[in-house]
Write a structure and sequence with these properties.
- The structure is a single chain.
- The protein is an alpha+beta fold.
- It has two domains: about 80 residues, Orthogonal Bundle (Arc Repressor Mutant, subunit A), CATH 1.10.10; about 150 residues, Endonuclease, Chain A (2-Layer Sandwich), CATH 3.30.870.
- The strands form two sheets. It has an eight-stranded mixed beta sheet with strand order 4-10-9-8-5-6-7-11, sandwiched between helices. Strands 1-3-2 form a three-stranded antiparallel beta sheet.
- A hairpin with a 3-residue loop joins β8 and β9.
- α1 packs across α2, α2 crosses α3 and α2 crosses α4.
- The longest helix has 25 residues.
């Protein structure tokens, strides 16, 4: 069986197999049904190792043992293997999520919260700031601080960014609306895009601004600034600056209010 090494390496990585398992599975697929000796010859794997590899593949669901004698093996169709791996991964993730969710009720987690509060309390609000990197980290953190809002959320961003994540934005804003959190939104971008977004968020007035900026202010006590990318830096990692300062957030929110009142127009 002639299979290029780069294909073997890619299949090994895709299906989380070692090199022997990959070669034996490919040999099985090419033969349909084969004995251990035939597989060893087709795969180039030493016969003494072939039995162990076949046993491993059978446990993982990549091979079946054919009924009858002499013992022969059948390679499992790639599509079936792929679906099995997806189901296993989905089950593993669901179990992990359940376990992580249950951590909140444990004494260990309560202790972690206690340690955090003791460590954070001596820090002056104006000194508390950090840099967040990566879409996943930023999204998770933004989602958490939005959920923590008790009075007001100010959103200033690009209309195209909202349009691309419309469902996520709507879910978050619906939660805020139900909790009676005041939401202010100002968007830059094309009028038609902003109008379309305004129709979706019909319970929140949206104003258009000409400033290319992206930030979120929560309860005028903490703020997330997005570091905007240059047009030639499409692959640059997303970066956000988080500042937990009531003085700074209130001052910035006041500047936002004045700018919106003077220069923005309501999109209806």
């Amino acid at each position: 069986m002639l299979v290029k090494q780069d294909l073997i390496n890619r299949i090994k990585d895709y299906f989380d197999l070692n090199i022997y398992e990959t070669k034996v599975w490919l040999a099985l697929l090419s033969k349909g049904v084969a004995s251990a000796g035939q597989i060893a010859e087709a795969s180039g794997i030493p016969r003494s190792r072939t039995y162990d590899v076949l046993e491993s593949l059978e446990k993982k669901g990549f091979a079946l043992i054919k009924l009858g004698k002499p013992v022969k093996y059948i390679g499992v169709r790639p599509h079936i293997v792929l679906e099995k791996l997806k189901n296993n991964l989905r089950k593993s993730i669901e179990e992990k999520i359940t376990n992580l969710s249950g951590l909140k009720e444990t004494n260990e987690f309560l202790k972690l919260e206690e340690i955090y509060k003791k460590g954070i309390s001596p820090i002056k609000a104006g000194e508390l700031s950090a840099v967040l990197k990566g879409k996943s980290n930023i999204s998770n953190y933004l989602n958490e601080i939005l959920k923590s809002a008790t009075n007001e959320v100010i959103i200033c961003t690009n209309a195209e960014d909202v349009r691309a994540k419309l469902r996520l934005f709507k879910q978050t804003l619906d939660i805020l609306f139900k909790r009676k959190i005041k939401v202010k939104i100002a968007l830059s971008g094309e009028d038609k895009t902003i109008k379309r977004i305004s129709e979706v968020f019909n319970n929140i007035p949206i104003k258009k601004i000409d400033i290319d900026a992206k930030f979120f202010i929560i309860d005028r006590r903490e703020i997330l600034f997005y570091v905007l990318k240059e047009s030639n830096e499409l692959n640059q990692e997303d970066i956000v600056i988080w500042i937990n300062s009531e003085f700074f957030s209130q001052a910035f929110a006041s500047l936002f209010d004045r700018s919106v009142e003077k220069g923005a127009k309501l999109i209806q």
